[in-house]
Amino acid sequence: MGFRNATFRRFSLSLGALLVLCALLWFWAAIQQQESTLAIRPVNANASMPDGFSIWHHLDANGIRFKSITPQNDALVIKFESSDQSAAAKEVLDRTLPQGYIVALQDDDATMAPQWLSRLRDTPHRFG
User: To which H or E segment does residue 9 belong?
Assistant: First the structure.
């Protein structure tokens, strides 16, 4: 019986260490993803949005890479891999877009915290 207990204990400790290592790797990967978003909105409700192709052309001509360009609500949303890319894109678009558009940086990390807090507030919790 002593051999089985020692083997079970080693197995349990190994499994626990593996789970902790997986959790640390997952946490590190989540921290490394710092996706950033840029939103383009017209100042007036009557103004039309610039098309994604023209935005792509301006960014590509300046060597700025992006993940996606999608219309969302009343804005054109551009996703980048880093906040440096979105800041560079904001400078380019502020310079190249005609007057009448608002180009705003929106870091995804800043928007995630309020979403989680609202989910926690709105979800009923049962203890005991």
Answer: helix 2-32
Residue 125 pLDDT > 80, yes or no?
no
DSSP string, 78-121: EEESSHHHHHHHHHHHHHHSPSSEEEEEEEHHHHHHHHHHHHHH
The gap from C-alpha 34 to its chain's centroid, in whole angstroms, comes to 6
- Conformational region of residue 100, where left means phi above 0, alpha means psi within -120 to 50, and beta covers everything else: left
pTM recorded for the entire structure? 0.58
* Distant-in-sequence, close-in-space partners of 100: CB < 8 Å, separation ≥ 6: 42, 43, 44, 47
Q: Are 49 and 40 in contact (CB under 8 A)?
A: yes
Q: Is the dihedral of CA 8, 12, 13, 15 positive or negative?
A: positive
